[in-house]
Write a structure and sequence with these properties.
With 256 residues, the chain is α/β, with parallel strands linked by helices. Helix content is 42%, strand content 19%. It has eleven helices and ten strands. The strands form two sheets. Strands 6-2-1-7-8-10-9 form a seven-stranded mixed sheet. A three-stranded antiparallel sheet has the order 3-5-4. A hairpin with a 6-residue loop joins β9 and β10. α2 packs across α4 and α5 runs parallel beside α6. The longest helix has 15 residues. 34% of the residues are buried.
């Protein structure tokens, strides 16, 4: 009943997810809301639509680390160095940024390519539906397991030890602007040259995927780079506007 309601009201399709895992997360949300039955919880969703956001945060799994899937960042490094100017600032967007590791990884990569003046004009927007995740990302503090893919040289240059954890240095944190954003209901960011939106579409049905992708398409400039999750593709309605750009990853370049 609840999953059908979520699907009908928001288009989020959890029908193929492991039911036992979903039920654990749903019950956790019910407990936090002080509700004992699914029927009463459905009534709460009707009274307070913002509860959908809190529920979605509970149902989605945020698995992230610095330079997750190194092939993605190797691709971005090659493309940026080949086609972008080191003297021009870059606008980028990490949509569904979770706890911020991806956005900071991109900031590190761009820091190694762009000139000092260009870095001052560079901004990475990092957004997520989950307010708590965004707050954690702003703090920029991570455990050892999150930085496994960060080389010793990069750790020395861009991170520092803080009470047993690693914290992102200010010069990198200053490049990233974090904010809460519901890509389904909120306006899109615009004029970005790099857009990472990995493993967001997997929660949406096909109709909602096209609606959301329309916003991503609006955001990215012609010639810009788009990276989706491994199992995600550009919707067929937009396929003529994008060229596959990476081997072994779901990366695209928008047609000029």
């Amino acid at each position: 009943m609840l999953l059908e309601k979520i699907f009908c009201e928001r288009g989020w399709d959890f029908s193929n997810y492991k039911k036992s895992s979903l039920m654990r997360r749903i019950l956790k949300r019910l407990s936090a809301a002080g509700i004992s039955s699914l029927k009463d919880y459905c009534a709460l969703l009707d009274r307070d639509p913002s509860e959908y956001t809190r529920l979605f945060s509970n149902l989605t799994v945020k698995v992230s680390e610095f330079f997750r899937d190194p092939r993605v960042f190797e691709f971005l490094d090659e493309e940026v160095r080949r086609d972008f100017s080191p003297d021009e600032g870059i606008r980028a967007w990490c949509c569904g940024c979770a706890y911020g590791e991806e956005a900071y990884s991109l900031a590190i990569l761009l820091s190694e390519f762009l000139s000092g003046e260009a870095l001052m004009r560079t901004k990475i927007f990092a957004t997520d539906l989950d307010n708590e995740a965004v707050d954690a990302a702003r703090r920029g503090r991570y455990r050892e397991e999150s930085v496994t893919n960060v080389s010793a040289e990069r750790r020395e240059r861009y991170l520092f030890k803080d009470d047993g954890c690693y914290k992102v240095k200010y010069n990198v944190r200053n490049m990233v602007k974090f904010g809460s954003l519901d890509i389904v209901r909120s306006p899109s960011i615009s004029k970005v040259k790099i857009l990472l939106c990995r493993n967001v579409f997997i929660y949406f049905n096909k109709v909602l995927q096209e609606r959301v992708f329309e916003k991503l398409d609006y955001a990215i400039k012609p010639g810009g780079l788009l990276v989706l999750g491994k199992a995600e593709l550009v919707p067929s309605a937009f396929s003529s506007r994008y060229i596959r750009a990476g081997k072994g990853i779901s990366a695209y370049r928008k047609v000029v």
